[in-house]
Amino acid sequence: MTLRSRALLATAALALCLPLGLVASAETEPAPVQTKDVDTPQVVEAPKTAPDAAIERGRYIAVAADCVACHSNPKSGKPFSGGYALETPFGTLLSSNITSDPETGIGRWTEAEFTRALREGLGKDGQHLYPAMPYTSYTKMSDQDVHDLWLYMKTVPPVRNAVVTNQLPFPFNIRALLMGWNLLFFEQKRFQPRADKSAAWNRGAYLSDALAHCGACHTPKNILGGDKSSEAYQGEVLQSWYAPDITPSKTGGIGDWSKDDIVQYLKIGSNRMAVASGPMAEAVTNSTQHLTDADLAAIADYLQTLPPGPATEAPRTAVTGAVMAQGKRVFDAQCKACHASDGTGIRHITPSFPGNTAIQSNEVAGIVRTVLAGGRGAITAENPTGAAMPSFAWNLSDQQIAAALTYIRNSWSNRAPPVTAEAVASTRKTLNLNAVGRAPHPAP
Q: Which of 185, 213, 228 is a domain's end point?
């Protein structure tokens, strides 16, 4: 393979390795591109089924795999009808219509074709699906689960909605490049239970590695967009969000979380240390909160046995007194009301900062994005309102945001490198957020 070919493959694949579900190759008449509000998680429910055990199991599998979130535009109110937009640095991908509509959905697909898409990443016509559809994880699904999911999908009411899934410009729209990517990074294999582990642990491994495809976001990627399998679940930046280290590392992961903390986070969207936001809030809202307590406990069992990420502390970087003083002024004026003067926050509403490994991570993309754009926590049965964080892009400068985050990352026994104004400016540009306008109060 020439250097140019490798570069084309790299750029095409790197931007697309995000869990969007089935991005099929049917390209008929275009549907409007509709993106979700930046601070509002989409809430879409998989349609209920007839009282058939196999079909209901299929519905549960669809929920565990979070299919409905990726294949539904919440503004349309039509589950599985496609049109969910993924903006990449190279263009837009839209999720496909996977309702039973025969013209614009998968109503004319066979079970074999459906299985091939899930396990091999090939559409009905044999064209390669982008790894935005996590077939690299779904290939591990059991025969029974694939069959039950198919039975359920056949019951989904048809919705006529033609979607041009591939809106990438040349050369990124060339699907043939994915043949090389698959040769390098895709291995077809089923999940194999480990005899030396408990049934609960094996169930958690299956849910995490196959159905819920957690590694699609939380595993670092190489320059071609393939998973760094030796660093599984150690965190990655996707679309300016940081999917954090969820290994038992005590310096960068969730090593200080108990099993109950993990279960509560997945069930409610928050725990004593963290509040889900961004794509994770959507995952909790549409998927994990609906899993059984036994399955959530199994996921926790599995995550707590993963090889921990590097046990490296943040480098000792000098933080000037002037920056800390400015950061404290911004924090007191803009943040203290919700996060408390001691940074402990409000349980299930705002996260606790002291000792929070995500706050102290060397990767600051997620926290910078949250301050700039705001966000909304998961909407769950036990927390139906969902905590909200306003956007501060309009009334805080890049330097003020950087100082406030540096203050939070170095107070209450926290220690982390300072956040730079340049990092904030870069994220502001990526998100296309306006510069500071007139603030309601004098800026600190």
A: 185
Helices (H), 292-420: 293-303, 321-330, 336-339, 365-373, 398-409
Q: In this structure, what DSSP letter does residue 308 have?
A: P
> At which of 185, 218, 233 does a domain end?
185
334-343 burial by CB neighbour count: b if 16+ within 10 A, else e?
Answer: bbeeebeeeb
> 359 vs 113, 211, 282, 366, 370, CA distance in Å?
44, 29, 20, 9, 12
Answer yes or no: do 76 and 155 share one domain: yes
Residues whose CB falls within 8 Å of the CB of residue 43, separated by 6 or more in sequence, listed in order: 74, 285, 286, 379
Indicate the annotated binding residues.
67, 70-71, 214, 217-218, 335, 338-339
Known binding-site residues for heme c equal 67, 70-71, 214, 217-218, 335, 338-339
326 & 292 share domain: no
Predicted confidence (pLDDT) per residue in 88-141, tens digit: 656 678 889 999 999 999 999 999 999 999 999 999 989 899 888 899 999 999
Angle at the Cα of 275 from the Cα atoms of 269 and 280, rounded to 5 degrees: 60
pTM for the complete prediction? 0.84
Tokens at 385, concatenated: 């309102």
Extract the runs of DSSP E, i.e. beta strands, from 97-216.
Answer: 166-167
Query: Do both 25 and 161 map to the same domain?
Result: yes
Mean pLDDT of 215-229: 89
Report the CATH number at residue 257: 1.10.760
Q: Is residue 422 in some structural domain?
A: yes
Structural domain count, the chain: 3
- Whether residue 400 contacts residue 442, with contact meaning beta carbons closer than 8 Å, is answered with no
Considering the domain architecture, whether residues 45 and 120 belong to the same structural domain is answered as yes
Same domain, 362 and 229: no
Whether the upstream peptide bond of residue 244 has omega within 30° of 0, thus cis, is: no
> Domain residues for 325?
321-430
97 and 166 both lie in a single domain: yes
Helix (H) or strand (E) holding 216: helix 215-218
Phi, psi of 165 (to 5 degrees): -70, -40
Instruction: Write down the pLDDT at residue 35.
Output: 38
